[in-house]
Design a protein that fits this description.
Layout (H helix, E strand, L loop, with lengths): L15 E4 L4 E3 L2 E3 L2 E4 L2 E3 L2 E9 L4 E3 L2 E8 L2 E3 L2 E9 L4 E3 L2 E8 L4 E3 L2 E3 L35 H11 L1
Parallel strand pairs: 1-4, 2-5, 3-6, 4-6, 5-7, 6-8, 7-9, 8-10, 9-11, 10-12, 11-13, 12-14
Amino acid sequence: MSKGRVTPAASADKIISIIGPGMHIVGDCDTTDTIRIEGRVEGSVRAEKAVVIGKGGRVNGDIQTQDAVIAGTVRGALDVDSRLELQATCVIDGEIRATRLKLDEGGVVNGTVSIGRKDVGGGAPAGAVPGGQAMSPQANENPAGRLRGGKAKAKAKARAAR
């Protein structure tokens, strides 16, 4: 044991639940902290702080959280109160609602995307992009119905649609 070094106890602010590679959960996951998914979940996922889905992670169900980083596959609705980061390896099939979105080039989204604060006055939310439309970094239509990269271009296209 070395002198003067103290190993800190696990802080309640840094608790992360992990579903590792090779692990398969059937049922809903609910935590007051952060969950990292490297395996498979068939059911809804709710985390008060954050959801992180690794490249090999898969969720077949809805996700509700404050912040999320997705590198794997999600088949279901994503409801993110603050920041959603979709990495280049992600595949999302379902509705997305988030206050802020970062989509890396190569990320695939099939479904409806609503970005911005929840609209209290009715009508379409700020930044709504109907399903089936697509954007690329060059803001060209993609016949496969996939939303690909370029946060600034996505915002510009959404503003033009209003």
